[in-house]
Amino acid sequence: MMMSRGYTRLASSMFTMVSPRFFSTAATRGVLSNDMVKAPAVGLGVRCRSSMAAIVGGDKEQEKKQAVGGGGGSAKDDKEIVSYWGLDPTKVSKEDGSPWKWTCFRRRYGCRAMMLETVAAVPGMVGGMLLHCKSLRRFEHSGGWIKALLEEAENERMHLMTFMEVSDPRWYERALVFAVQGVFFNAYFLGYIISPKFAHRVVGYLEEEAIHSYTEFLKELDNGNIENVPAPPIAIDYWRLPPNSTLRDVVLAVRADEAHHRDVNHFASDIHYQGRQLKEAPAPLGYH
Prior knowledge:
Strand content: under 5%
Largest sheet: none
Number of helices: 10
Mean pLDDT: 74
Helix content: 55-70%
Oligomer: single chain
């Protein structure tokens, strides 16, 4: 019994010495941030470094504020992580300096692009999911096409996240997304089961229309009908654009993505048209 109490006291004293260092949120975040920043820039590591650098910079700025103020700052002074990327969203203001809540009233073309991307991200996910299930059923490889289609879906989703920074959908637009996505998902699901050749061809033509839409978007920007605002931080981080990039640079990057998706889906349809399986042709990986 005495030995048990001795072990309890020893464990308690060790926990007291260790806890201030290893169970502190600030200390833990600092250790993780430094490790992430010093990590080699391989693949997605570049984006991790960019996002984590913003976090570390915020911590250092907070420490300076506390040092100047002579004490702990209030909760309002804390640097908050407001997005997955650790970057503050773009803020739009009126002429009198007050915040503009409904940016859709100013940039309706941005809202149009945003609504299109809510649908464009569906085909890649549906095709990748069905190929995934087929691979499991038949115990066979997909030739990289599962990853290629899921990459397409993720890329289209990032288009949506980018245009969310320059547009704010109205309530009925959000409701429309629910209705359209529900109908389109099920229709494309059945279409892909019946004829993958037809499904990929349809997506290829839809991507061609998307390219045309973004080309018109660029014309509006060049003519001055749409303000060429600075690029959102999420776009600079995702496409690795220069810090001084603008909305026009973002639209160019998005249009290039759509051109790639067009070629991939027409290529997939051509493979089925020749009576072959997708796994027999190498998937176009490594673009995104």
